[in-house]
Amino acid sequence: MTPRPFYRWKSFWLGLFGACFLAWAWWDSMQFSSWVSWREFGANSDGGAIELFSVTSSYGWRGSSPAEFDWNRSDATDPFKRLVPVFPAPLLLRGGGEDIPLASENGTPGPVCVRDNWKNSMRFQPPRDWLIFLPYWLVLLAFIVPWSGFLIWRHRRQTKTTP
């Protein structure tokens, strides 16, 4: 008996659905900013990446008393959010604990993209705060490689067992 073709496998269609969802989320993060927060923890989809963070003090990010649970979705209207590299590098940041400057320094260029904005903002957060910047291309790759490996393994197993 010949094995079923791969397009009849549930694992193929579920994986394709998951990959298409991640590709759509990547595209959506280039157009919109979506975030959710619970106490000091939060997640953000913005600038071609997923950002997971823990910010304990506000410094203007979330007000003086963070809400128990909060979420928002907005258009990426800031100029630096439009300059998004297609394949940004991953990033792991800790709070720098620096004092906030009273006046902006002349001649210092502002953040160019969302990733640079996070790097700049985390300099002024307490050292216990952290942020993980995971680009969608990396998340998509981390999904597609094992899924493809599983499909290849399944195909080989089925063709090997058929007489």
Layout of strands and helices, then pairs:
Blueprint: H1 10-31, E1 32-38, E2 41-46, E3 49-54, E4 69-75, H2 79-82, E5 91-94, H3 114-122, E6 130-135, H4 136-161
Antiparallel strand pairs: 1-2, 1-4, 2-3, 3-6, 5-6
- Tally the structural domains: 1
Order of helices and strands: HEEEEHEHEH
Strand content: 15-25%
Low-confidence stretches: none
Describe the global form: elongated
Query: Helical amount among residues, as a percent range?
Result: 25-40%
Distance between the terminal alpha carbons, to the nearest Å?
A: 7 Å
Strand order of the largest sheet: 4-1-2-3-6-5
Return the average pLDDT rounded to an integer: 80
Would you count the extended β strands for me?
6
Radius of gyration, in Å, reads: 21 Å
Secondary-structure-based class equals: alpha+beta
Number of helices: 4
Task: Give a short account of the largest sheet.
Answer: 6 strands, antiparallel
